[in-house]
Amino acid sequence: xxxxxxxxxxxxxxxxxxxxxxxxxxxxxxxxxxxxxxGGAEAGKATPAQPSVGTLAAHRPHxxxxxxxxxxxxxxxxxxxxxxxxxxxxxxxxxxxEYAPAxxxxxxxxxxxxxxxxSWLAFNERVLELAEDPNTPLLExxxxxxxxxxxLDEFFxxxxxxxxxxxxxxxxxRSASGLQPREVLELIWNRSRExxxxxxxxxxxxxxxxxxxxxxxxxxxxxxxxxxQSRLYSLYMQQIFPVLTPLAVDPAHPFPYISGLxxxxxxxxxxxxxxxxHFARVKVPPLLSRFLEASPQRYVPIEDVxxxxxxxxxxxxxxxxxxxxxxxxxxxEDLEVEEDDTENLLQALEKELMRRRFGPPVRLEVExxxxxxxxxxxxxxxxxxxxxxYPLPGPLDLTGLFSVARIDRPELKYPKFVAGTHRxxxxxxxxxxxxxxAALRTHDVLLHHPYDSFSTSVQxxxxxxxxxxxxxxIKQTLYRTSGDSPIVDALIEAAExxxxxLVLVEIKARFDEQxxxxxxRKLEESGCHVVYGLVGLKTHSKLxxxxxxxxxxxxxxxxxxxxxxxxxxxxxxxxxxxxxANQEVGADLxxxxxxxxxxxxxxxxxxxxxxxxxxxxxxxxxxxSEIKHHRAGRPAYxxxxxxxxxxxxxxxxxxxxxxxxxPVDIWVRGICAVRPGVAGLSExxxxxxxxxxxxxxxxxxxxxxxxxxxxxxxxxxxxxxNLDRRIEALVRVEDPAHRAALNRLLETGMSDTTASWHxxxxxxxxxxxxxxxxxxxxxxxxxxxxxxxxxxxxxxx
Length: 797
Prior knowledge:
Elements (H helix, E strand, L loop, with lengths): L18 H20 L56 H4 L17 H17 L5 H32 L11 H33 L3 E2 L7 H15 L6 E3 L13 E8 L6 E7 L7 E5 L2 E4 H6 L1 H7 L4 E12 L13 H11 L5 E7 L4 H11 L6 E4 L8 H5 L30 H7 L2 E5 L8 H10 L3 E8 L7 H11 L3 E6 L7 H13 L3 E3 L6 E2 L2 E9 L2 E9 L11 E8 L2 H15 L10 E4 L3 H17 L6 E5 L5 H12 L4 E5 L16 E5 L5 E2 L2 E5 L6 E5 L5 H5 L1 E8 L2 H15 L5 E4 L5 E4 L11 H12 L6
Helix pairs in contact: 3-4, 3-5, 4-5, 13-14, 17-18
Cofactor: Mg(2+)
GO molecular function, one term: polyphosphate kinase activity
Keywords: ATP-binding, Kinase, Magnesium, Metal-binding, Nucleotide-binding, Phosphoprotein, Transferase
């Protein structure tokens, strides 16, 4: 719920990668992994250890590896929703090559990993279940239908496209679950077909009728009154007809290019004189509203307006329109940049974005009433397999329900919640911003968004730093941010006032590339030092460092978080962050930023675990320590909260802990390859998932540690891309009260009295929303909202 930033162009796909390039990338990844395991050159780097000094200009990018779709508010799809997005990794998984040798002497059973593609589809099914739930407010149900559709779009554009590309180039390998690539593809086709049919039925049979009962009507053309049709005819001639371009298909006109995710009409016309039939394609303009208002609270799909008999006749004067059918194509929208050969990553990425729209097709959605001859023509011309054709009842493209969900009917939505200032920043709510530096000089602040205001904490921290004459330097990572970002404005203000400002912009955050290129250029023009990370690695860590002159000394103030520096998504995503003046953390961030912007080779830190070198090994070491504590009779447990967990080395460590008797709790939003509850392997592992009005996005790792609990938070999910191909950072939480609060949060999420989905050993998820007597189980998000309201005396009775 892609808080896919502001609305982007609906079709910008990636090129197909050549066999040679794909093979080179696969070889590079394996070599990188072997290098990391053997303790060789800096882990995670691409083959050239470092570019020579002569090849780098002052702000020349350190190129990064391929894009990712990480479940965050991704560019073009979910700018409009609060809720849930998928978490898709388009890179190949190669467990046998990368991880097996580390524990070659320890036998764990085959088939211990669930299939990640099936797990992702199960995640999106949980989103669909929220739309199907009559206890979910009606417009939120419509929102979840739109989220399901946009999630699936991204899944096909990235994950399915990547799988097909690897099969075609011969680099696909058996998955960790034991399935062959073709078996995985067929599983995806079959399961997604079932879910898409269920999704369409939910709209047709439940949501549309329920909206009509509330006076919100989504109707088809034939259901409009004469007056409404007349009004829309005027609208059509003035605003729609001038931008339509019918494209004929005949010997003189080749089959037109069909852009990804565009809605199209396949129109069959005949010449009344010769009787010859002709095919034409009309693209629905993507920049116009998906649903047009025929009269107050009555909406009609835009394609119905275009396809009305009189309107189509205006496009084909003198011809007879015999039939028309809607279709929608999904293309590969991943992108590839050969970074090792790229002198300027920014320019190369801009060129690649232009090529992206020509990616090969991966899915064709058609109305179930489509004529068989027209369908055969589409399949033939688009060169798509029959298994990739999805007949559905209209209307297609229910991502358009995002606009319906925005209708101003608060009684049909979740009750409004406005976050307040964290009490450790300001004991009393005030119209003036709290003095963040003064607060941090006395104590650390553990933030929990969206329950704690982002604008009066993290945003205020950076805005005050920009305005403070005693602040000498600001260093910042930016992965995704909003189009009108106050964070970017604060950094620009700081640079223009003479402060040293370093901004590490990850320009290859998938589907936000164009926006990040724009901000990178704007920051550079203002005088910020802009860099793009390390060769072969993406910078996904959420870090901010402020250096302030206080008397005769310099004091470092830090923020380490789990979410992006995006004020808009901070109101929709559940995230954690630590604001601190601790000098060990500050020193760690200084060292890490020096590594990101220069040539530092530091690999160990005081309070941080940093990928790709120390994060996986650091967590596995702590899991193994819990086994020792348990065997010695000391308190031991492992508690994990992540978006996704598929890394086999980490999962195997959790299996070994379970076999030793250590209780393991996993709270996961999306993909989970752990198979819990298997006798002799994982009977001490529980897996829960929580979805709701906010997107659960924080990552927390807690260990019993023999009675002295250890808790970490940060940006990393347990996926190969996070642990091997990204700069990720976890910070150790030292304040006992903060550790206790995070452990309480984890215990609440895992409790049997909390509404959640439970994962079984067969990979099936079961929803637990009510107790044995039918009473609703507690909603952890509503509990946290109510706790914040109680602090301000506004709690619900």
